[in-house]
């Protein structure tokens, strides 16, 4: 306390000057409408700037929650798309039945761990059996196809992404009726995959889009996989080797959607029955 009093006493002249200046300015503002208006405008500008900065900080703090809400809304919107429904279209003579049933639902999830520089990369998502996740479910993001669910625990699951040595996925050209097999050779970087088994008569060019089809049994048809970057064919071969630039950037992957195929069990049961009949 003694030091504080000494501080004020040593600076008593300066403090008295400041106090008199404040009193003088107050009297001027009160007696002059122009000065009063100028002070009010300045005060509003300062308070507005402070409120704007406060709002920016608050929005930044709430950004993760906002992203989760947007991901949930996107999952609901994807589930409502026409491509998520199975057509019951039947043409019986002159009677046309155009009923649809839901085939795909989408469950939003967040990537909580991942790798992009290994031969066998992986993703870990914060969704598990309590959320209805099962092995062999497809995973997509807002940009395109991501991978396949492999192992599932109660609260988490792991995903084999497209950038994995065991990736096998069917892909087709968006604007051409040709399809092939997607793979990721270990000598490729995380931004590219290979499309094989495209017949030599296929008509496509650099820049064309390759999308998913239903042959993989993982995704709805039409989910982007990548863009044709380069392609070649050996003179003695009948099939092109095509390199794609992936639609999904795995180095920036955050929110994804797990694809729930509501008709998968029925399809697999029927196909297994056919395989047993061939044995």
Structure description:
With 279 residues, this protein is α+β, with helices and mostly antiparallel strands. It folds into 2 domains: 60 residues, no CATH class; 172 residues, Beta Barrel (Thrombin, subunit H), CATH 2.40.10.340. Helix content is 33%, strand content 32%. It is elongated and about 105 Å long.
Topology:
Blueprint: H1 2-10, H2 12-31, H3 33-61, H4 63-80, E1 85-87, E2 90-92, E3 95-97, E4 100-102, E5 104-114, E6 123-125, E7 138-140, E8 145-152, E9 157-161, E10 169-173, E11 179-183, E12 192-199, E13 209-212, E14 224-232, E15 239-246, E16 255-261, H5 264-278
Helix pairs in contact: 2-3
Family: Belongs to the MreC family.
Protein name: Cell shape-determining protein MreC
Keywords: Cell shape
What keywords describe this structure?
six-stranded antiparallel barrel, Cell/Rod_MreC_2, Thrombin, subunit H, cell shape, Cell/Rod_1, Cell shape-determining protein MreC, alpha+beta
- Termini separation comes to 97 Å
Q: Give the total of beta strands.
A: 16
CATH topology name of the largest domain, in short, is Thrombin, subunit H
Assembly state of the chains shown: single chain
Write out the CATH superfamily name of the largest domain.
Rod shape-determining protein MreC, domain 1
Provide the spatial order of strands within the biggest beta sheet.
Answer: 5-6-9-8-7-16
- Approximate strand percentage: 25-35%
Overall structural domain count: 2
Largest sheet report: 6 strands, antiparallel, barrel
Radius of gyration: 31 Å
Q: Which spans of ≥5 residues are poorly predicted at pLDDT below 50?
A: none
User: How much helix is in the residues?
Assistant: 25-40%
The chain-level mean pLDDT equals 80
Q: Provide the CATH top-level class of the largest domain.
A: Mainly Beta
What structural class do helix, strand and pairing data support? alpha+beta
Q: What is the annotated CATH architecture of the largest domain?
A: Beta Barrel
């Amino acid at each position: 306390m003694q030091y504080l009093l000494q501080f004020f006493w040593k600076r008593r002249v300066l403090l008295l000057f400041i106090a008199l200046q404040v009193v003088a300015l107050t009297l001027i503002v009160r007696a002059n409408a122009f000065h009063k208006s100028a002070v009010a405008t300045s005060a509003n500008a300062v308070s507005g700037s402070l409120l704007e900065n406060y709002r920016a900080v608050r929005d930044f703090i709430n950004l993760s929650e906002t992203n989760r809400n947007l991901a949930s809304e996107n999952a609901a919107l994807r589930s409502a798309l026409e491509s998520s429904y199975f057509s019951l279209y039947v043409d019986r003579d002159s009677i046309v039945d155009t009923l649809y049933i839901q085939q795909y639902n989408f469950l939003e999830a967040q990537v909580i761990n991942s790798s992009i520089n290994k031969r066998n990369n992986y993703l870990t998502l914060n969704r598990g059996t309590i959320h209805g996740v099962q092995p062999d479910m497809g995973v997509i993001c807002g940009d395109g196809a991501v991978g396949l669910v492999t192992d599932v625990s109660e609260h988490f699951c792991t995903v084999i992404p497209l950038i994995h040595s065991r990736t096998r996925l069917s892909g087709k050209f968006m604007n051409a009726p040709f399809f092939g097999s997607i793979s990721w050779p270990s000598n490729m970087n995380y931004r590219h995959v290979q499309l094989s088994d495209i017949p030599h008569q296929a008509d496509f060019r650099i820049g064309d889009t390759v999308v998913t089809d239903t042959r993989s049994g993982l995704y709805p048809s039409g989910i982007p996989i990548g863009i044709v970057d380069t392609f070649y064919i050996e003179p003695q071969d009948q099939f092109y080797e095509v390199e794609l630039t992936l639609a999904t950037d795995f180095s920036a992957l955050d929110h994804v959607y797990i694809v729930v195929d509501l008709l998968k069990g029925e399809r697999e049961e029927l196909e297994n029955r056919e395989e047993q009949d061939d044995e």
